[in-house]
Specification:
Layout (H helix, E strand, L loop, with lengths): L1 E6 L2 E5 L4 E2 L1 E7 L2 E6 L7 E7 L3 E9 L6 H14 L2 E2 L1 E3 L2 E2 L4 E14 L5 E13 L1
Organism: Paenibacillus faecis
InterPro entries: Myoviridae_GpU
Pfam family, one: Phage_P2_GpU
């Protein structure tokens, strides 16, 4: 089993037993600025400090890769609803300053069998730094 990284208890792995990984990871950061109005002139900008970074990525769950999509989605919902802050690790290195919180979790149920079993799903996860 090849461990790619993790989001708290959710381990990203590729191996013969299972495939649980992410795709399309994007990270965004921005500074915080204030504009002070000046009579008869343009506003004066002041840098307040760095803002909180955000990260988003997708995870695909498929029974063909020895993953139970419904169970995996339920784990993510539990983490999101608990408001748990977790480290995000990719390639053995932490991303960001400290921990991340799930601010958005979108599920797409892509394939369901004749008995109502979820066979294939995608989760789009958005994280924000937690300091």
């Amino acid at each position: 089993m090849n461990k790619i990284g993790s989001l708290g208890p959710v381990v990203f792995v590729v191996g013969p037993e299972a495939i649980r990984t992410f795709a399309e990871l994007s990270r965004s950061s921005a500074g915080r600025w204030a504009n002070h109005e000046v009579l008869g002139k343009k506003p004066i900008s002041q840098f307040i400090g760095p803002g909180l970074d955000t990260v988003s990525f997708t995870m695909r769950f498929d029974v063909r890769y020895r993953i139970n999509p419904r169970k995996e989605l339920s784990k993510l919902v539990e983490l999101e609803r608990a408001g748990k802050a977790m480290p995000l690790i990719v390639g053995g290195q932490g991303l960001g300053v400290n921990k991340w919180k799930i601010t958005s979790l979108e599920q797409s149920w892509e394939e369901i069998d004749g008995k109502g079993n979820l066979l294939k799903a995608t989760a789009t996860i958005t994280l924000e730094e937690y300091l």
